[in-house]
Design brief:
Elements lengths: L1 H31 L6 H24 L5 H23 L9 H27 L1
Helix pairs in contact: 1-2, 1-3, 2-3, 2-4, 3-4
């Protein structure tokens, strides 16, 4: 009973932080693209920046059959990627002279690599 409570609490916290990551990332991408004239380019950046969060939600739905350790790892990844994404998009983690667009391109790519590795490991352990 306590194990399920812990996992459910971790899931709830991770989903709340993930939602904050979505809202913050969306706000930062729109703020940084506010002077750009191409609506299509801004829409593509929005889709790309939000895609890891959507991937994490899909992984959460898929995680019902995963081991407890794999699910806990997923929730930790959800927390870490949400916070790192916000720090990255805010410019805190960017070296001086880095173009803003680069950060919005590379952060989701790195997130997808981490998510993919996690899902592959979790699925192989759960079978």
């Amino acid at each position: 009973m306590k194990k399920n409570l812990t996992i459910n609490l971790m899931r709830t916290v991770a989903l709340v932080v993930l939602l904050m990551g979505v809202v913050g990332s969306l706000s930062l991408v729109l703020y940084n693209g506010r002077n750009h004239k191409s609506i299509l380019l801004i829409a593509l950046f929005v889709a790309w920046v939000l895609s890891p969060f959507i991937g994490l939600l899909i992984a959460d739905k898929d995680s019902k059959g995963w081991t407890d350790i794999a699910r806990k790892t997923l929730y930790i990844i959800m927390l870490v990627l949400s916070m790192v994404s916000l720090l990255s998009y805010s410019g805190v983690l960017s070296p001086a002279g880095t173009k803003t667009a680069f950060v919005f391109l590379i952060t989701p790519l790195i997130s997808w690599v981490v998510i993919s590795i996690l899902v592959l490991i979790a699925r192989s352990q759960s079978k």
